[in-house]
Amino acid sequence: SWSISEDRVVYQLLVLLQPPPRHSFRLEQLCGTHLPERSSGVRVVLECTCPRATGAAPCLAHPAQSEDTAQPSPLLQTLCTGSYLDVEETACWVQNLVQTAWEHLPQWQRWQLTVLPSSCSCRLLLSGPSELQLCAVLLFAVEQGSP
Q: What is the total count of domains within the chain?
């Protein structure tokens, strides 16, 4: 969606997060609240990919007895707290990614990118040569039962 207020155009973009390969997201209601979409945890679950019926080698979710337990990916270590997706860490990671990418866009050098404080979304303010400012708000979401 978008709106205009005084000298600022605000765009709100919904960003659907996808789990990494061999993982899934599970929404879990926290503290018995009645608003699961606002008060839920997003658990990141490592899915079994081994064909147990055929007796093939174990997958990452079921390491062999002699092997060490599979380590989570560096991205999951960055974005998760324990087994749960950390919204603040995700927002910070996206903000840093956007700032780094912005430096490589010479066609926008007349515009200044400012990351606005936000702990659960990514809020970006673009100020250009005119009085008009553009504000983009990236809202993060996951689909229930997303593989």
A: 1
Annotate 124-137 with DSSP letters as a single string. EEEE-SSS-EEEEE
Going across the sheet that includes 112-116, the strands are: 2-5, 8-16, 133-141, 121-127, 112-116
pLDDT in tens, 119-129: 889 999 999 88
β-strand partners of 89 = none
Residue length of the chain:
147
The predicted model scores a pTM of: 0.73
Residue 58 inside a domain? The answer is: no
| Helix (H) or strand (E) run with residue 45 in it | strand 40-46
Kindly provide the residue ranges of all beta strands, DSSP E only, lying in 6-91, ordered along the sequence: 8-16, 23-29, 40-46, 80-81, 84-85
